[in-house]
Amino acid sequence: MISKKRFLVGGVALALIAGTLVSTPAKAASSELVIGSVLDIDKLDPHTSTNFATVRALGLVYSSLVEVGPGNKLKTGLASSWSFNAAGTQLKLVLRQGVKFHDGSTFDATDAKASLERILDTKTGAAGRANLLTITSMVAEGRSLTLNLSVPNVPILAALDGVNMAMLSSDDIAAGKVGGSNKPNGTGPYKFVSWEPTQSVKYVSNPGYWMGAPKITNLTIRVIPNESSILSAMNAGTIQFGIVTDPLIAKQVSTKTLKLFKVPALAYYALQLNTKVAPFNDKNVRLAIQCSIDRPEMINTAMLGEGAVSGPITSPAYKSDPNARPCPKVDIAKAKEYLAAAGKSSGVTFKALVTSNGWATSVAMAQNLKAQLARADITMDLDIVDQATYVPRWLGADFVATLANNGGRIDPDTMYTRYFTSTGNLNKVATYSSATLDANFLKGKSSGKTAVRTSAYTAISKELEDNAVWVWLATPYEYRVATKELKGFVALATGSLLPLRSASLG
Amino acid sequence: MRLAKTSGIAARLLSVLITLFGISVFIFIVLRVIPGDTITGSLGIETGVLTPEQIDDLKRYYGIDKPLLLQYFSWITSFLSGDLGFAYSTGVSVLTLTGSSLPVTIELALFGTISGVIMGIAIGMFSAKKPGSARDFFGQLFGLLALAIPGFVLSTAIVTIMANKFGYFPNGYEYMTPWEDLWMNLQQMLFPSIVLGIAVAAPVMRTTRSALLETVDKDFIRTAFGKGLKSRTVQFRHVLRNSLIPIVTMTGIQFGYLLGGAVIVEKIFALPGMGRQILDAINKREYATVQSSVMIFAILFVTINLVTDIIYRRIDPRIK
To answer: What is the DSSP letter of A500?
Structure first.
């Protein structure tokens, strides 16, 4: 017999649990989109941002002179047109008319010049400075900005894309009101409202945006520091858009209830070999590694089939042909021949630096490569460290080999000049340069003709692969998950959220 | 008598101060020993584009160009005067960051401990009532499973099942403090508290069971039964009360661990607590944030231990 008191207590408890389960708050209004992101932003200065989350978030607030659109094609941004002189040493940009900053001031060439000068100023510590070093002077007149260059540099146009090249108000720059706790003031589709560290970034649509006010009026990027929880929040309908990098999570997306956007990324995975130290100061050992790796096997196992075999250049217009490399398919006999040629018939042992949390599949990929290399009597010991430890060691070339996930660009010049030219600021990390590479990079940089540039970058790709400078492995996918109600969104290989400016809900 | 008590507390306070000093030195040194600094933590691989002059400028800006001893004294004197420093990446003071994250962690640890203690004591009593019986077997099985199942597995399972089967995931909404929206706050704390509570319940259950079995054989319990008291009265008023000391000890320790050990649960349930704050700061090598946050945890931990000691004295006057 249950007493009245017990019955009441039990009833109240059950009601509480039931109430909790059913009283889910109302879902977001139709013009509001909540985006789930594992990473929080880490600053508000677009020129010094390197964190993916910050670049994505500030890309909604700030605009650049040019943009990368669908198909990785360069298109107009705040510059409505441009032209190079015949020698490729002068770039004239005509700026879009009627563009205003979020504070109401008008954008003109003075702002563009001040923004580029800020990037070039060493005190700024701008991430994109190296790409602008050929600028010797700038002339701003009304809506026209002319860049005079020390050498022919056609790829500089593509380098003007992105958050690191954001156009700021010259008044803000003069007053030192950029970054820190200053509210971002851009010309982008969304106005910055607030940032609550570790929680969210909020925006409202910019009614004066030059492409017209975005249909989604309120945008929130909410930090949910676990991709599995992002997917759960999407399934529960508490958020409407998710940024996912882990193929395992992407594979769990039910396309019956959600949309999955998947585009090949420009970024690439490579086993970077330090050519300055043994055993990789011997080209034959490097080629032995090249021939021992079965890339499709690595993709199918460690990356769950979510990726594509890649060569050095991932820029769509100049993409390397992975079949043109020595040993396009795994060839253990050939690998052993190379080892014998290096006088290491009994095999080699080396240590590979691996980040534990740099990307979702890093350790799985390293373990798979270790197992594959063992078939050719090559022992790869894993030195697994966290990303914050990995970065300074990578920068100091403090490794014999390292598994890396490096960013790609739509132009090979901005992608690789910094690594493989003898004066490149990351050449110490690349550990390889040559006179022919320098000459080919200069050839590619100087010409506006596609055939000339293709020939230069094909030669670069061939030299890098024939010498197995690094062992290029694969490109991953960029994933976006969205509610079925999201219309008009196109995922970009750059990972930018800018296409949300043309999207709508319902 | 009073003098002995006072000197005992004074000795305890002195040991607390020495412990805190040791922790401050330890965390300061550990952060400097691990590779990387605030510059690489902030700029990542793009640090490679900086000139040596720019790096020197940034080191001066972050105050990491000074000798280590000077850095330590600068930080510890500021900390003691209430200036916890600021997070370079956000420009927000550590005091402000902690002001919003610490209550989340304390609330989570408190709910986790309360639910753990309730579950642990109830199952422990349930088990101890008939040692060796089927109910004891199931009670002990619970203890074993609760210890064996990692928190992240349980958390992920709960989140996935609730979201996929019931369309319910309150933690997907913006975090609400109890002052902003009490009902939403309780919903957001419910599952993480249960996960933490289960982890706490296991050791509490085992401690409760052993303590009860030890107490139940004592003469005064036989006397209580001999006086004709009801079984329930004997269980709660005499057996449980006299078994409380080890349970309180275990609860105090578990609460302290929950303060620092809830990082994974905070991540999976998207709760903006101290665990996440410290983890993010470690990844960014934000020295002031890590050092000051760890010190706050340390102060809380030793305070809880001190309070536990004082509670002992209240429960059992024989303890000096």
So the answer is: G
Structure tokens at A237: 């309908």
Residues A229, B87: C-beta atoms closer than 8 Å? no
CA A447 to chain centre: 26
Residues in contact with A86: Cβ distance below 8 Å, sequence separation at least 6, in sequence order: none
Q: What chain A residue is nearest to B155 in terms of C-alpha separation? A: A229
User: Taking residues A407-424, what's their average pLDDT?
Assistant: 90
Whether residue B61 lies within 8 A of chain A, CB to CB, comes out as no
A259 near B CB under 8 A? no
Q: Distance between CA atoms of B55 and A180, rounded to whole angstroms?
A: 19
What is the C-alpha separation between A368 and A36, in angstroms, rounded? 31
The position carrying tokens 């156009």 is A167
Q: How far apart are CA A400 and CA A37, in angstroms?
A: 34
Put simply, whether A222 touches B (Cβ < 8 Å) is: yes
Torsion over CA of A272, A365, A386 and A471, rounded to 10 degrees? 0
Residue with tokens 């006179």: A435
Cβ atoms of A338 and A324 within 8 Å: the answer is: no
Q: Do B270 and A225 touch (CB under 8 A)?
A: yes
Q: Are A229 and B270 a contacting pair at CB < 8 A?
A: yes
Backbone angles phi, psi at A361, to 5 degrees: -105, 15
Most confident of A244-248, A373-377, B282-286: A373-377
pLDDT tens per residue across span B283-305? 888 888 888 888 988 888 888 87
Residue whose pair of structure tokens reads 């630096």 in the numeric block: A353
Q: Please tell me the distance from the alpha carbon of residue A194 to that of residue B58, in angstroms, as a whole number.
A: 27
Sign of CA dihedral B124, B125, B130, B135: negative
Q: Which B residues, 266 through 285, put their C-beta within 8 Å of a C-beta on chain A?
A: 267-270, 272, 276-277, 280, 282-285
The radius of gyration computed from the CA coordinates of chain A, to the nearest angstrom, equals 25
Where does the pLDDT of residue A171 fall: very low under 50, low under 70, confident under 90, or very high at 90 and above? very high
Question: Minimal Cα distance from B39: which residue of A?
Answer: A392
Give me the phi and psi of A149, to 5 degrees please.
-115, 145
Measure in Å the smallest separation between the Cα of B218 and chain A Cα atoms.
32
What are A37-53's pLDDT values in tens digits? 998 888 899 998 877 88
Residue of A244 and B235 predicted with greater confidence: A244
Report the percentage of chain B scoring pLDDT > 70: 94
Query: What DSSP string describes A414-434?
Result: HHHHHHHSTT-TTHHHH----
The rounded distance, in Å, linking the Cα atoms of B181 and B175 is 9
Q: Do A21 and B168 touch (CB under 8 A)?
A: yes
Q: Chain A: nearest CA to B51, how far in angstroms? A: 8
The answer to whether A341 and A284 are in contact (CB under 8 A) is yes
Higher local confidence (pLDDT), B9 or B19: B19
Give me A299's structure tokens. 């993709």
Which runs of consecutive H residues, i.e. helices, occur in B34-89?
38-43, 52-62, 68-80
Residue range A397-426: mean pLDDT, rounded: 91
> What does the pLDDT look like over B227-270, one tens digit per residue?
888 888 888 888 888 788 788 878 877 877 777 667 889 989 99
Structure tokens at B125: 């009593």
Best B168, B195, B268, B289 member to test A by mutation, with max A CBs in 10 Å, is B168
Amino acid identity, position A492: L
The answer, yes or no, to whether residue A4 has pLDDT greater than 70, is: no
CA distances (Å), B130 to each of A205, B124, B134, B140, in order? 66, 11, 8, 12
- Among A408, A437, A407, residue whose Cα is nearest residue A420: A437
| Residues within 8 A of A (CB atoms), B 17-46 only | 34-37, 40-46
Residue written as token pair 């920068």: A395
ipTM of this complex prediction, to 2 decimal places:
0.78
Q: Are B199 and B119 in contact (CB under 8 A)?
A: no
Nearest residue to A184 (alpha-carbon basis) of A175, A174, A193, A196: A193
